[in-house]
Amino acid sequence: MTTTSPLTPADRDAAATWVARMDDAAAWSTADEAALQAWLAGDPLRHGLLLQVQAAWELPGVVTPPAAPEAVDSAPGDDAIEPANDRGAWARRGVLGGLVAAGIAGAAATRLVLANGAQYVTRLGEIRRVPLDDGSVMTINSDTALKVNLGQHAREVELDQGEAWFEVAKDAKRPFVVASGPVRAQAIGTAFSVRKREEGVEILVTEGVVETWSAADATQRLRVVAGERAMVNARALVHYQASETAPVDRALAWRNGMIDLNGTTLREAADEFNRYNQRQIVIADPEVAAEQFDGLFRIGDPDGFAQTLKATLAVKIDVSDPRTIRIERAAETGF
């Protein structure tokens, strides 16, 4: 269910200010992080706005004459936010509002001080886009914990839980390796995601080639190319799906704050929504859970998903418990 955003041009201007400040990682402080979180807490829609501004910030050639910097509204009790000093950063600020005027995704994005050995943790429903010092970019999904170490001879990421998508900068002398338990995925100049699941580690490749293996037997390696996915555990390849770019893109719709269902069972759909929301979808009836469904939904809109099911399937929705959305089979009526 899509709603019209009440965000104002002042909100978009504030988001541009934050992104400009975060562009200077060396100057970003814990106080800045706290002030950013206070601003985000003022309106849930600001989370998606900031994510879109960060994406727009990466676009090349976005230049306008620098305008006089303006103060950004801060949370009560906080000091006013000073504008970034970087002229090039402020030169792009004037056009960002237009780039993000359409559609607000229900996801949060923040950036911490970047350093070797840095640890990143996202909360439930939070999506974080993090540029790395080597030119790579991580997009970290909800409820994820990972560590990054950019060494002289290797670039290493340890994924403890959750999922992340990596756009890897080319550097043949420093391989980029993501480890999740015993499973390894290595790429040079490519884009791929790694997700830790109960049954193993899922690897989806959107660009280039990724080589994956288990530390238990590094001689057995699998090459996964763009449009393919693989599920690997400590002992063996569990599942492999060849060249189907569209399904891979659908599985990574979370990067844009969306859940893309394509013949997905309602149980799987509920699991996806539950990754991002405090209010959990519960489907107790196995027959209902096995129903398949198509659709594109915002990750932060489980109510909209439930209402769509009610309108299209023979189900009823119970929202009496504020912690859950219970989906049940509708009672049959006879004559």
UniProtKB/TrEMBL annotation:
FecR protein domain sequence ranges: 119-211
Pfam family, one: FecR
Entries under InterPro entries matching the protein: FecR (IPR006860), Ferrdict_sens_TM (IPR012373)
Key word Transcription present: no
Stretch forming the signal peptide: none
Keyword set, alphabetical order: Membrane, Transmembrane
Gene3D superfamilies noted in UniProt: 2.60.120.1440
Record-given protein name: Transmembrane sensor
